[in-house]
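Quick one:
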Amino acid sequence: FGGRQYTSSRLKTQGKQSFTYGRMDIRAALPFGKGIWPAIWMLGESFTSVSWPACGEIDIMEMVGGNSGQYSNSKVYGTVHWEHNGDHADYGGSNRLSEGYFSDAFHVFSIEWDENEIRWYRDNMKFHTMDITGAQLSEFHEDFFFILNVAVGGQWPGSPNSETVFPQQMAVDYVRVFQKQ
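Output:
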């Protein structure tokens, strides 16, 4: 496409549907390969007026496709990003499968987000928590929209290599949001 060997895409709910607090469950099977970077995340609805990272970012799931070592197709990350004293700040955790890869089967990636904290889960197993009660974390008490994407290449995963197979896909079975009435 456009003279390139590959491209990537995303789906987003910006301007259509946004949320403050709740439980978000996304059941997905992830792609596989070096340089493949699937993500299920949320960005503050204020993005167009205050920009990033001041709008806040909640990464429900990111997988950095690699072949071995720290970055592999069996480890996912849950992270938040925000602006702190004019600088970018982030805090995250990770979860690794005991065997196999995230492309082998569907998994449910979730957050529970309330006035006090955000909790990350993979298949209902909690792997990370962030306290969001601090005054410098006010962006996490505003509306956020969803972004689901598969990026190819980039600084974190690096470029695909000769073993990376195309096409790739992130198969999403459902996105469910549960909120108090």
